[in-house]
Each structure stands twice: as structure tokens, then as C-alpha cells.
Amino acid sequence: MRVFISGPMTGYAGFNRAAFNDAERMLKSEGCTVLNPAVLTDGLTQAQYMDICLAMVRCADTVFMLSGWEASAGARTEHALAEKLGHRILYQECGYVAERVPAIRVGAGDVVTGAGQLCEVVKTDVDAGRDTVTLHFFGGGVYQCASSYPMDVVWISDAIVGGAT
Q1: pLDDT in tens, 5-55
Q2: Is the whole model's pTM more than 0.70, yes or no?
Q3: Helix 73-85 to helix 46-59 angle, to the nearest 10 degrees?
Q4: Are the C-beta atoms of 76 and 142 separated by less than 8 Å?
Q5: How far apart are CA 74 and CA 54, in angstroms?
Q6: 121 and 47: one domain?
Q7: What three-state secondary structure class fits 8?
Q8: Is the pLDDT of residue 161 over 70?
Q9: DSSP letter assigned to residue 44
Q10: Residue 142 belongs to a domain
Q11: What is d(CA 150, CA 141) in angstroms, rounded to the nearest whole number?
């Protein structure tokens, strides 16, 4: 896998390079080729950084979204391009790597087992018009849905990059 790391940088101490570098080490330990924008030199404009990062997204086949990416305009742009290109997108959630997987229906009291470890519901986006759920991982690979809403999308640990980050 060629993985581009995306996440918030502006407004973070050291441009959040520590989080990017930690993710790079984890991904490399899984055998991935990593495209890390945190290694870019200082001194460019934000537009120039985005030009480079979007080119890196196009070179990747997978994008790894660091926690907090939703609050970053640049990371949201990288995410949108990755979706448009059909790239696999992995999410750093709850200290684990997760992948958004569609077409799994779960409701209150449902128990779901399958590939990877699953976890308890911690956030739903039903009120925002999106039927999604974010999960916290726990041992045993069993998930008890805590929401009364049916979900179309759940977060499941990725079989390739599924360890703690």
C-alpha cells in the first residue's frame, strides 16, 4: 500500500509533526510505503503545500486520516480528493486504525462479529443527517450496538493496519 497521511497541521505545536511521524512509523511497520507531508520543508505558502499534498494523494492508493482531520480545511480537501479517486481511506480513531465500511445494518441490541475487532458505539451522526457510528475497540471482536438508531455505516478495524497507534 502507498499511504498518504492526512491530518490537521495549522495551529498545532510543531505543525502536528509528532502525530504524523508516529503514524508514519506505525504504517511502515506494517510494510506500507508512506507519503508524509510533515517532512516538507518550511517556507512555502499554504497553497503551495496543498499543491504538493494533493499530488501526493494522487500518488497514493490509500489515505490515513489522523484524529482531528474534520477540523482541518486542508485535510477535508485531501479526504474529498481521495474519495473522488476511489482510494481506500483509513481513519485513526480511539487509538486504533479503522476503516469506514458501508452496508452493515445494526440496531439496538445487535451483536456483530467479523473480521477485525469491533467496539462500542461512542458517537452517532444521525442528528446531523448521516447514519454513521464511531466505535471504540475492545478485546474479543464482539460489538454490542448501543444506539437505538439503525446504522448504515460502522467503523471496523482494518485487517492490515489494525493495531493500536
Answers
A1: 999 999 999 999 999 999 999 888 878 899 999 999 999 999 999 999 999
A2: no
A3: 30
A4: no
A5: 9
A6: no
A7: coil
A8: no
A9: -
A10: yes
A11: 20
